[in-house]
User: Fold this.
Amino acid sequence: MNSIRNISIAAALIFFNTFSAQVAIEKEVIDGSSTLLDFNNVPANTKGLILPATQGLPTASPANGTFVFDTSDQKVKVYENNTWKDLSDPGSSAAITANASDETGNGVVIGVQPGSAEGILVLESPDKAMILPKIDTPHLNVKNPYPGMICYDTASKTFAVFDGTVWNYWK
Assistant:
């Protein structure tokens, strides 16, 4: 009886470990098999992804691809090739609501077993990507953007970043 239980457990582990986590937000189906995180990108969408607001840059060595809204100089930044790069001009952090809760743990990991990256939301995958929320002309359609909001502008086909004052666009 014990061997049947052990074989069943082993078979279940093998079966469940062959799947990769894929997450859809506000929708039922993920677009494409190479997507790790996907948002409801209907044409009337005005919801973007809000980056964490930090006072200064993280002290630990971040992973390449880490994004933050740095309230010390009010810029959106990305960590790339072992250096922080500005994605916006100085904006305004006046609209940011401070988080007074204790932060514990490494946050949420979506995808494969977590690596060394730490963050609020960590996407780990060797072959899947995140599809940003898609918004048509966010500077016109998002009425009250939050500092650190990012999205893909479907009209200009660019990466859009709100710095608290203006939208910045990257090709």
User: Anything to note?
Assistant: The radius of gyration is 19 Å. The chain is about 10% helix and 30% strand. The first strand starts at residue 23 and ends at 25. Residues 20-170 form one domain.
